[in-house]
Amino acid sequence: MISSASTLLALLPLALSTPINPRNNNAPLRFGAIAARSASPIHLQTINANGQSFWIGKETATYCPLDPQSQCPPGNQTVFSAGNGGASLDVVVPGGQSIYVAPNGKLSYTIAHSASIPAGSARETFTASIPASNDGDGSVPLGSFTFEGLGGSGFLACPSHKVDSEQGPFPYQVFAGVPGLKDEDVPSG
């Protein structure tokens, strides 16, 4: 439910973990993402693509069109690619898979081999950045992945069910913080 602070946690912004490509201002930035919300169960948890949505606490679900399947990457990580205001999944399917925010705020991605998105969706207002340098200790610097569109900004994580002692708090579905997001739009609403 959106009205409860315990069931809706901000991910402002999603933290970038593990940049995949070296810094090159002409190439899209490729990265994995984790949630950054201290003192919450989602803090430092991986963001994964599964079922045309993004989740915290669900495994990555993949499809690979290559034959034989031995040519496919392992498929156990969600890798984002972002640049020029847009974002997509870093995939091998022809045409790629675009990331967009649906009118109800759900952070989504297109199915393989399709560029179709719902009318009123936004896919051109994403920003990803990684600092140019780190502290010199060999660690990978964390960056950010943000959304500024549809009249809102940032991301939210909503538990997919009422939290109880048997199921715990996971998984959480990722939404953009858009105006008008309603309880019925989120999984536990």
Tell me what you see in this structure.
Helix content is 0%, strand content 32%. The chain is mainly beta. Strand 11 and strand 12 form a beta hairpin.
Can you give me a brief rundown of this structure?
The chain has 189 residues and is mostly beta strands. It has strands at 9-10, 14-19, 29-34, 47-50, 53-56, 80-83, 86-89, 97-101, 107-109, 126-129, 143-149, 152-153, 155-159, 172-176.
Any idea what the radius of gyration is?
A: 16 Å
End-to-end span in angstroms?
4 Å
Globally, the shape reads globular
Helix proportion of residues, in percent?
Answer: under 10%
User: What do the pLDDT scores average to?
Assistant: 80
Taking pLDDT < 50 over at least 5 consecutive residues as the criterion, the unreliable ranges are 1-13
How would a textbook summarize the main sheet?
A: 9 strands, antiparallel
Indicate the structural class: mainly beta
How many helices does DSSP assign? 0
What fraction of the residues are assigned to beta strands by DSSP?
Answer: 25-35%
Number of strands: 14
Order of helices and strands: EEEEEEEEEEEEEE
SSE layout:
Blueprint: E1 9-10, E2 14-19, E3 29-34, E4 47-50, E5 53-56, E6 80-83, E7 86-89, E8 97-101, E9 107-109, E10 126-129, E11 143-149, E12 152-153, E13 155-159, E14 172-176
Antiparallel strand pairs: 1-13, 2-3, 2-11, 3-6, 4-5, 5-14, 6-7, 7-8, 8-9, 10-11, 11-12, 13-14
List keywords for this structure.
single chain, globular, 14 strands, mainly beta, disordered N terminus, 32% strand, 9-stranded antiparallel sheet, 5-stranded antiparallel sheet, 189 residues
